[in-house]
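Troubleshooting log. The previous run stalled partway through. Resubmitting the same two chains, unchanged.
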Amino acid sequence: MNGGPALERMTQGDALALYASGPWTARYAPDLEVLVGDIEKMNSQSKRVLIDVSKVAKLDTFGAWLIERLSRSLALTGAELRIAGLSANYSTLVDEVRRVKETPPPDREPVTVKATLERIGRSVAQIGDTLIGIIDMTGALLFALWTVVRHPTRFRLTSVVHHLEQVCWRAVPIVVLITFLIGCIIAQQGLFHFRRFGADVFVVDMLGVLVLREIGVLLVAIMVAGRSGSAYTAELGSMKMREEIDALRTMGFDPIEVLVLPRIIALVIGLPALTFLGAMAALYGGGLVAWLYGGVEPEAFLLRLRDAISIDHFMIGMVKAPFMAIVIGIVACVEGMLVRGSAESLGQHTTASVVKGIFFVIVMDGIFAIFFASIGK
Amino acid sequence: MANPPDDAIIRVRDLTVEFGGGKTRVLNGLNLDVKRGEVLGFVGPSGAGKSVLMRTIIGLVPRLAGDIEVFGVDLGSADSDARRAVERRWGILFQHGALFSSLSVRQNIQFPVREYLKVSERLLDEITIAKLGMVGLKPEVADRYPSELSGGMIKRVALARALALDPELVFLDEPTSGLDPIGAGDFDDLVMTLQRTLGLTVFMVTHDLDSLYTACDRIAVLGDGKVIAVGSIEEMRASQHPWLKSYFHGKRARAVVT
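Second attempt completed without errors. Output:
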């Protein structure tokens, strides 16, 4: 064999002879396809066609199929067809591919106005499904909570502690670092701009109110939604994919009680704790910048802070934390339970979990802002 | 291609594999030859390292010592191009199929072909249907996703994917586990048919005594990190090794023979 495959043709009157030689294998499939395509395009008028494959050095499914394809297209022209020189081994292979029926076209949905409108409609309807899913999960969760309250022995303390370590204890370094940096940045920006009015000292007011009421809890909740919400969705999703959740159910356990409740309780304890730490770190960072960059002595900073903020500011921030934890936890678990068989679905729901978690955290914060404004706090 | 017909297609010499930094030695100076064109059944007690050996040969598990030659290429010293060339010539059926869950059956089978060959969509589709037909599946399955298939169908599709590039060597990791006896028998027939038509060499890790009797030319037995016996089913049955005796003369084995 001198390299690639070949297909020579010879015409004699109304007879056409095709001599195949060389390796007719997958490796040479691109060349083979061209060779066979040329003959097909030739549109021969021959009445009798002979395909001689005796010189074929090697044949596999690709080669056998292309010979079969060639003979099928020649048969369509009404020619009398004969394949010669097929060894016993290869003839079983050719018989095998001969059974292949015409290929059904792959399903490709055409892009039409109607299909686009339909997709938009379905996406809108899915928003409703999300809300129903959340309400559903809340109900199931309350039911599980009630069961655990009635039968305290069924409460899974070990699981709660385990998740508390994951979502709270292990999150401490990153949460403290980021809130510390944000505190520094707020103080620096405040000093830079307030200095023009000679209002340096109001930086402490701004920092205190902003960090304790809003930024502290919001920032920590967003970080937790990204860090733990995604983990919850991925954990529950992969358990769902491997039928672990079905296994639990058949053993007489309620997956909500065993898997979801401990996770959400861990978040409800963990998020306020992280919020507190985060707020303290941000105030510390702000104070440090005020001292080193703005020349506000620590004693002065603390005195001013005591005057500027009341316990209300601190409480408002802390009160919001458990509610945000519930929202993040429920959204993450709902998404986790929606995961279907494929890896792609797991990815989609994990993304959705984080995006929806952050969205609901911000919506929640807005609702709290209106609420506290209307009760005059 | 350059190898003579009865040459060893896989040659393993003094292979040693350890896990956990030397805590457990799974394979200990193992030697094995797989001849061109044969179906080699690989048996051994659960946890003896059958899958580890297969995964070491295909390069998924690092080895501590020893040489592995496939198609005459020493995989230890081969550069990445030579490795790729070897990888193109083998196909692997993993125990649980390992189909790509986000791709349809069609895309799963076409995936390796697209990667290595520049051929038209038409040929890709035709080859996909041909491969599905070879493993006994209808063309309608092509647009389903792995999560919509039964266990037996997953194995068949995985075999079709392993065969997509018409490899010369196929590794099968417990191909009939989880199949009903009829399905398993069909699968054995399928392997034998493919082996005859495509001239495949098959390396099969299995526990299925039926497969050993019907499909395998030779059987290798793994024990204590070594191959303790290689030979035909008759030689295995005649062996006095205690594990082999209980394996081939146990209750289940008698049921197969009679």
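Takeaways: The radius of gyration of chain B is 18 Å. Residues 100-166 of chain B form one domain.
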